[in-house]
Amino acid sequence: MELIDLQCNSGLKDVFHEKKLVEFYYSLLPNDQFQNLRKFARRMCTVFGSTYICEQTFSLMKLNKSKLRSRLTDDYLHDVLWMSVSNFEPNFEKLVAEKQPQRSH
Fold first, then answer.
1. Range of the domain at 31
2. What PANTHER family does its record include (predicted)?
3. Total number of domains constituting the chain
C-alpha cells in the first residue's frame, strides 16, 4: 500500500527524480507514512555494501595466495586478509620501544 501511495504522490515523484536514490529514501521520504518502504530500502542498500566488501576480500585473498605464494597456511592467510581489510594502524614506535635489543655476548 505504501508503494501505491508513493506512486500516486506527484510531489514525492518529482523529488524522487531530482535527488539521489539513497538521499530520497533516507532523508526525504516521510517516516510516518512510509516506514515499511524506508525499512526495505535500508535493507536493499546494505546488501550491496556487504557484497562489495565480500568481493573485495576475495580479490585480496586471490592476490595474496597466488602460485608464487602457494605455501601460505590458512592461519597466515587469515592474518594477511585481516590486516588488508581492517582499518587498524599499528603503533610501531611503541612496539619498538617495548622490545629489548639483543646484546652481544
1. 2-98
2. EPM2A-INTERACTING PROTEIN 1, GENERAL TRANSCRIPTION FACTOR II-I REPEAT DOMAIN-CONTAINING PROTEIN 2A-LIKE PROTEIN
3. 1
